[in-house]
Amino acid sequence: MKDKSLFKMHADVCKALAHSIRIEIIDILKDKEKSFGELLKITGVPKSNLSQHLSVMNQKGILIHRKEGLRVYHKLSSPKVYNAFYMMREVLKERILKQKELIKNIK
Amino acid sequence: MKDKSLFKMHADVCKALAHSIRIEIIDILKDKEKSFGELLKITGVPKSNLSQHLSVMNQKGILIHRKEGLRVYHKLSSPKVYNAFYMMREVLKERILKQKELIKNIK
DNA sequence: TTACTTGTTTACAAATATACGAACTAATGA
DNA sequence: TCATTAGTTCGTATATTTGTAAACAAGTAA
Fold first, then answer.
1. Which residues in 26-45 of chain A line strand C, with CB less than 7 A from it?
2. pTM given for the model
3. Which residues have C-beta within 8 Å of that of residue B21, sequence separation ≥ 6?
4. Nearest nucleotide over every DNA/RNA strand to the B48 CA, judged by C1'
5. Contact (CB, 8 A) for A64 and A75
6. What are the Cα distances from residue B78, in Å, to A29, A94, B22, B81?
7. Could you tell me which CATH class the domain A5-106 is placed in?
8. Residue A11 to residues A71, A85, B97, Cα–Cα distance (Å)
9. From CA B60, how far away is CA B76, in angstroms rounded?
């Protein structure tokens, strides 16, 4: 049988984006790094929850962080993460446009 | 508070890719349509399970299908789906390369 | 040392997602 | 009509993910 471990790893990267809080985090970090505390304020997510989401994103390789004193700064691990994020949004846009067409035809 | 429904929809599209079987399906459909039966043979996934995964992908707007006689043919809803798939794989590649570097430095 | 700030980890409940056999439906042909 | 093929849906068991409070850890500063 064919080896499917590549599909598994590939899906793991996709999973790192597959949550609305994580999408919001990528949106915030798209062009600049932010500390944990800043992300906390912007998102309004409880800190333990936010920490877990950031941890998942780090493990899956889509974020990196550095510690400076008490603060931890997070950013995208590569511009490719934003490209992937962006293409997903394009797919969403296309889907919404198609739905608009459908509604127009119903009227 | 800020409206987060866009993040939710965006994450839903990502979720459609976030499973190894669904990644495999996109890989198979990247450049041609296939019938359910062909997908069944290629993937080896039980038919009820395959049908459910295809259903999820249809609902999330990343696949479309047409029926012809007894057969159902599936394909990507847009080339953008493959672009998104591809960028995810690029992120994975980058991560693997970084891990290789780390191992090299350990030696 | 003590207290404070910033963030992580743990424990566990609740919610979602996945897997798969069995039953079911739709189209075709004998 | 009856059987066959192709695929979907249902019931339900299992697995994975998520959310939250509470405990914990690490760095800074008095």
1. 35-37, 40
2. 0.94
3. A7, B43, B45, B49, B50, B53
4. C20
5. yes
6. 28, 8, 16, 6
7. mainly alpha
8. 31, 14, 18
9. 12
Residues A48-85 have pLDDT tens digits of 999 999 999 999 999 999 999 999 999 999 999 999 99
CB contact under 8 A, A20 and B27: no
Contact call for residues B16 and B57 (beta carbons, < 8 A) = yes
Q: B58-83 pLDDT, tens per residue? A: 999 999 999 999 999 999 999 999 99
CA nearest to A49, candidates A69, A24, A81, A32 = A24
Instruction: Output the CA angle A73-A78-A81, nearest 5 degrees.
Output: 105
Q: How far apart are CA A9 and CA A39, in angstroms?
A: 27
Give the gap in angstroms from C-alpha B99 to the nearest C-alpha of chain A. Answer: 10
Whether B20 contacts A10, CB under 8 Å: yes
Name the residue among A86, A27, B88 with its Cα closest to residue B96.
Answer: B88
Burial class (CB in 10 A: 0-12, 13-18, 19+), B51: middle
